[in-house]
Amino acid sequence: MKLEVDEETGRFKRIFICFGACKHNYRYLRPMIYLDATFLIGRFRGTLMAATCVNGNDDFYPYAFAVVLSENKENWFWFLDNLQQVVDDRPIVFLSDRHEGLLQGISRAFPGSYHSYCFYHIKCNLPIGKGDANYNVVIDLFYKAAYSYTSTNFEEALRGMHAIGCGHVANYLRTILKEKWANVFFHVCRYAAHSSSIAESFNNWILEFKKLPAFALLDAIHLKVMQMNSKRRVEGLKNFNTRLTPVYEDLLNENINIGRTWTVVESMEILYEVRFPRTHSVDMLERTCTCHRWQVNGFPCTHACAAIQSTREDIYSFVEPYFTTEWYNRTYQEIILPIPNYDKPQSYDPSDRIIVPIPVPPPGRRREQRFKKAWEKQKRPMMGTKCFTLGHHNRATCPMP
User: What letter would DSSP give residue 332?
Assistant: First the structure.
């Protein structure tokens, strides 16, 4: 935990928390971290920053979070510096939006890692309006570019945009997504740049707590994470009866069934050519396939499954340990301990207390009152209990800091 308080006034500034169990179990998680921030809507209009990982069954794993006054470059730098102290030395793939603090902070705090971008945020920022005649075609080509596993398919989608007269959109995507292909051969399990549902799942998971004060919010998150980890620990020990977690056991069986009728030709002991519907080369030693799905996802693709099945070797030996039930259970072997306050003092020295921060108005332009017509019913102005002035706002929406 890292707590910062204004030395002059004693007011709360920001706090960073990572539970010891999460830090210890990080070694069993894929080195992928989703970064996102959500605004709090209570009296303290601060920001909750969260780092979320993915467990072996494709569920989100709350890892670290912080409460700050606002989302800006300085606070993201501070959050990433603290996050660097609770992760190991594996290269990390970060997935986030394109906030300026993240664009500069990730390369600064994690120089050996990779940064992919949220699919939804890029889609919303495309330089083309919904009223444009080519909008639907551009969106289809954008999906093709973002979901492509090879640079050839990526460039083909951009050439399609140039062909319909939307070269400015193609140039925008080339500057953003071209970095994705520079590190496409990252050997640790890696997703494509369009994944964003994990971070949004965490935001929806704590939606009911966003009205709470800062420290009540942290306590509620602690209880919910502790309860979720306990539930998943029992579920993994009792219900996961396969070598892989249920999601990836089904995916492996599906890949095996798809490639069961394909033709596999041996080039050498570890190199195979898989034919149908297209010809692909599978290297079992390097664990690569020319479709790039094996090296990008860290999980055998259909071509790799067909080649492995032809050799009659144990296909599970070619699957990364992150997807096994054993590592899933290890992810939740460390428990988050309860925090009792039974023997704590009932009162504290005034000098040891942290003063509540001054609420910061939300970012963006203030919403102005619309000029109403003569026949519209006028609302009766009411006196606010915070600013003691007549107006059309309450204590929660008061514009005064």
Answer: T
Q: Is the entire prediction scored with pTM above 0.90?
A: no
How far is the first Cα of the chain from the last one, in angstroms, to the nearest whole number? Answer: 28
Provide the 8-state DSSP code for 359. Answer: P
Query: Position 137: which residue type?
Result: V
The per-residue pLDDT for 368 is 61
SS3 51: strand
- CB distance 115 to 180 below 8 Å: no
Cβ atoms within 10 A of the Cβ of 29, count? 23
- Rounded to whole angstroms, the Cα distance separating 288 from 295 reads 6
pLDDT at site 197 = 62
Q: How confident is the model at residue 370 (pLDDT cuts 50, 70, 90)?
A: low
Residue 37 sits at φ, ψ, to 5 deg, of -135, 145
Q: Which DSSP state fits 28?
A: G
Sequence-distant (6+) residues with CB within 8 A of 209 are 216, 217, 220, 221, 224
Q: Tell me the DSSP string of 173-239.
A: HHHHHHHHHHTTT-SS----TT--HHHHHHHHHTGGGTTS-HHHHHHHHHHHHHHHHHHHHHHHHHH
Residues in contact with 34: Cβ distance below 8 Å, sequence separation at least 6, in sequence order: 51, 52, 53, 54, 60, 94, 95, 96, 195, 196, 198, 199, 202
Structure-token pair, residue 228: 């979720």
Q: Which two tokens stand for residue 334?
A: 């460390």
Q: Are 220 and 48 in contact (CB under 8 A)?
A: no
Cα gap 39→258, rounded to integer Å = 45
Crossing angle (nearest 10°) for helices 151-163 and 167-182: 170
List Cβ neighbours of 42 (8 Å cut-off, separation of 6 or more): 210, 211, 212, 213, 217
